[in-house]
Specification:
Blueprint (H helix, E strand, L loop, with lengths): L3 H17 L10 E4 L2 E4 L8 E2 L6 E3 L6 H9 L5 H6 L16 E3 L20 E2 H6 L10 H6 L5 E2 L3 H7 L1 E3 L6 E6 L11 E5 L11 E12 L6 E17 L3 E9 L8 E4 L7 E2 L17 E6 L11 E2 L4 E4 L12 E6 L10 E11 L4 E8 L3 E2 L3 E4 L2
Antiparallel strand pairs: 1-2, 3-6, 4-5, 7-15, 8-12, 9-10, 9-14, 10-13, 11-12, 11-14, 12-13, 16-18, 16-23, 17-22, 18-21, 19-20, 19-23, 20-21
Length: 385
Amino acid sequence: MRSLKQFLVLATTIAIIGVIGLNTGSAEDKTWTYGGVEYRLPKPAQDLQLPGDIPESHTVVSGDCLWSIARTYLNDPYLWPLVWEENLDTIKNPHRIYPGDIVRLPGGGTMIAAEPGGTTAMPARTFTEMKDAEVTDMEEPGETKAMEQTRKPFQVTSEASVIAAGMISRERITGVPIIAAETTAFDLAFDDVIFVEGGPAQGLQQGGSYFIMRELHLVEHPVSGRNLGRMYHVMAEAEILCVNENVTSARISKSYGAVLRGDFLVPREEIPIPLTLGSPPFDQCNPSSKKMPGTIIDAFIGGPAFSDAVILAKGDIAYIDLGSQDGVAPGDYFTIFTREANDPRLPRFVSGEIMVVKVYETTSVVVLTQSKTAVFLGDMIELKQ
């Protein structure tokens, strides 16, 4: 059972996340169905303004994801599901694209006739206008009913949870330290003005966005005992107000936890959250996949000195000892299981499942999507069939 302190920490985190929410700017509860999958748009369809110069396709290069492609061509990374739906025939998992793939773009390659002696103009169009202009006779009788019965993609956790969870890093992460604040309060929070030690020489620019990070405990593998690196959490986000040669002023724009003097700033990065259609309920009789075996190595709840006796349940954030070098990708599901050490004849005992939401080189951030019984640090995992 969780300690009272752990419950208070978790409750505080949930409260903060509830206030922050997602920056999708949803204007109304509207859905849009296409290709057998129903999506929720970040704003009403008639208000989605698409650029008029979208190319027909994009060739994937190393580091690309649908999030970055939507940001480049549609001017809004939250429209990445629109790119996915244009490629449902070739992109089965929207979080797995590879260098050399050809990704078709929504509304791309549309041409209009130029005026005599003029140039071809491609005005911006609303999303509704673009869809109305497309051929719609591809739907077979009865397809609409099947589409309505299709499960809706959803996020298994919030953007704030994944950002706040930070990472486990073998390399020491350094940034620009907070040295003072306008307030005399010990804990710093939303809208507080802080002062950091650095200026243009450290790359600080007025209006720049940063994560405020904190270095926490060393992470040891709960089974082998080997050193896996250090835990880093994101405590808040900050916006640079004005830059001086040696000291820069910034404002805390979002809070995920209490900020302290000594925490440090690193440039903010976009962290897209995978969408999923869910996975089938786990079955104790399903055979082992024997693919990508790994271990749950740490948890987002707790503090620098919490032990591996912490109990995890559905919705909790954790970390595993597998990363991109092992072939892990956002959206992957893993089965959690244990074995009876005193009787090897017994089959594995399945206790739950996790979904990967953020991948680093040697570790990944995951969320527990199902839990049949209590899950502990050191429990085994494998890629779900």
